[in-house]
Amino acid sequence: MKPLSPLEEVPIFTTQIKAFVNWTRKHALWPLPFGTACCGIEYMAVVGAHYDVSRFGAEVVRFSPRQSDLLIVAGTITEKMAPVLRQIYEQMPDPKWVISMGVCASSGGFYRAYHTVQGIQSILPVDIYVPGCPPTPEAVIGAIIKLQQKIQNGDTPQQRLLAKRQAAQETAPKTADGIE
Ligand code: SF4
């Protein structure tokens, strides 16, 4: 057997910093469940022992927007609640993501009425919609996996916006002192 060179003995791999950061982000989602109705109860099943969303690295539920990067809107959103939901979203640090769980959050559901928001995309940028009334825990886990794929590819509205800002900063004209 051919003896290994010193380099071959060390288990190393190469990657790009962007890919590595996205890989860590996708496996460490901290959700804030904004449960307003029955979908909130269904979400409890997702984090329970049977479905165990911790298998996908998304179980560290926080009820503070300052500690969360994944907003899961689970339930009906009324017009009065809309500014509160927007404020919570704005309080979350960047980058952040949004899952719209169930037809009520995604389209108003069967509430075709003036007091219900007819889809939270009018308030927030939504990354993934989960269909159903209520969506099954499998569907929610499927949405988390889909979101993780998008995060890994840097293909969410938040990541695209941050990349655009970073590119603009890098190409901004600098003075002789290096100050923009
Ligand atoms: S989508 Fe169905 S289960 Fe979810 S909040 Fe609306 S009525 Fe309840």
How is the topology of this model organized?
Layout: H1 6-9, H2 17-26, E1 31-35, H3 38-47, E2 70-74, H4 82-91, E3 97-101, H5 103-107, E4 128-130, H6 137-152, H7 157-171
Parallel strand pairs: 1-2, 2-3, 3-4
Helix pairs in contact: 2-6, 3-6
Structural description of this entry:
The chain has helices at 6-9, 17-26, 38-47, 82-91, 103-107, 137-152, 157-171, and strands at 31-35, 70-74, 97-101, 128-130. Strand 1 (31-35), helix 3 and strand 2 (70-74) form a beta-alpha-beta unit. Helix 2 (17-26) runs antiparallel to helix 6 and helix 3 (38-47) crosses helix 6. With 180 residues, it is α/β, with parallel strands linked by helices. The mean pLDDT is 89. It has one domain: Rossmann fold, CATH 3.40.50.12280. It is globular. 39% of the residues lie in helices and 10% in strands. The chain starts with 5 loop residues before the first helix and ends in a 9-residue tail after the last helix. A 4-stranded parallel beta sheet has the order 1-2-3-4. Residues 37-39, 75-76, 102-104, 109, 133-134 line the site of iron/sulfur cluster (SF4). Iron/sulfur cluster binds at residues 37-39, 75-76, 102-104, 109, 133-134.
